[in-house]
Amino acid sequence: MTTARIAPLQALPLDQLRRRSSTKWRAYPDDVLPLFVAETDFPLAAPITARLRDAVELGDTGYTPPDPGIRDAFVAYAQRRFGWTVQPSRVRWTCDVMMGVVEILRAVIAPGDRVVVTPPVYPPFFDCVEEAGGVNERVPLIDVDGAWSLDLEGIDAALAGGARAVLLCNPHNPTGSVHSRRALVRLAEIAAAHGAVVVSDEIHAPLVQPGIDYTPFLTASPLAAEVGYAVTSASKAYNLAGLKCAVMVTGSEKTAAVIRALPDEVEWRTGLFGAMAGVAAWDPASDEWLDALLVAIDENRHLLRRLLEEHLPQSRYRVPEAGFLAWVDLRDLGWGDDPAGRILREARVALNHGSTFGTEGRGHVRFNLGCSPEVLTEAVHRIASLVRR
Ligand SMILES: Cc1ncc(COP(=O)(O)O)c(C=O)c1O
Q1: Do 29 and 123 reside in the same domain of the chain?
Q2: Does residue 246 have its Cβ closer than 6 Å to ligand 1?
Q3: In the 8-state DSSP scheme, what is residue 18?
Q4: Which domain, by its residues, includes 295?
Q5: Which of ligand 1's atoms lies nearest the C-alpha of 325?
Q6: CA spacing 20 to 30 A to 185: which of 17, 171, 198, 235?
Q7: Cβ–Cβ under 8 Å, residues 371 and 41
Q8: pLDDT, tens digit, for every residue of 77-106?
Q9: Per-residue DSSP letters for 48-67?
Q10: Quick one: 243 and 376 in the same domain?
């Protein structure tokens, strides 16, 4: 798609947002600007609102049916947005991405097995590995020519040393980086060579910016399709996290058999509203909304760069390639390991604390760009006022 003439999606005004009851708006008092948890401040895509409104009016709030349509919706979406051909028989669904990751890991590792995670990374990954009975083996991202990259040699060594799985974040949260096809091809080779699997969390994939080459892991190579499991959802891009629906996708009969063998309960936990909203999100009728959202995020990711350059020149920030999260290194400000703590207390801006993403995140913060340019500007001005004190 081209975003050249698409107007950015407009965020809702703050007084409306403060009437929301989700975590973003209820975790802190009203004098705090919340730019932390990954919820966005936009109106829902109209097809989603219409679908949910119909359901509410009908009192259609029971259990999710045996086939809620989410599989077919994802198959069509993957083809249309990513050029990824998915076999419908190789898809199952569950209540959220993290649950899908836990259940797949539980099925493919034995208790006590090590699972590679690549910090700084979405903090629940560490808990998920443990919930599945595994032990985290941290192989941090490395900087290659100014790009966040997988440490393929480190992963190879971890798998050679007995780790059984890699939990991949593709695109990566919090850096907003997109792994290259080349890296994913190599990752699949390494996993296959050691008889390990790759579980790829692809929740941020709909938000890869135009012009960035994104590779769904299972499409990287025939080997990736053999060793990989993908888990994704409409919940992040379309702001549906409270509704609970995700899909687990496989690319071979062997891996499909693993997800087919998961207990029925795993599928049964899918939220009916999540499935309805997911089907509406992945319908072509919501594409225009998504494209406008991408333009809004594109503007904010560059606005943040300009704001930081002007008001916090000591900060370091790489414009993300995907998603609406921004990873900012504030170590040169001298605010210690937890700048988000000081920023919350003294500037009344809630950001994510970098160290929760792994020790590599000390001195960093994560911003949420899924807001209006005015809110983002105000947040940086408030933070910059601490420097001037
Ligand atoms: C990489 C990643 N995976 C998973 C999730 C959460 O997804 P879910 O609520 O479907 O478990 C998030 C939320 O921000 C995320 O960033």
Answers
A1: no
A2: yes
A3: T
A4: 14-44+286-388
A5: 16
A6: 235
A7: yes
A8: 999 999 999 999 999 999 999 999 999 999
A9: HHHHHHHHHHHT--SPPPS-
A10: no
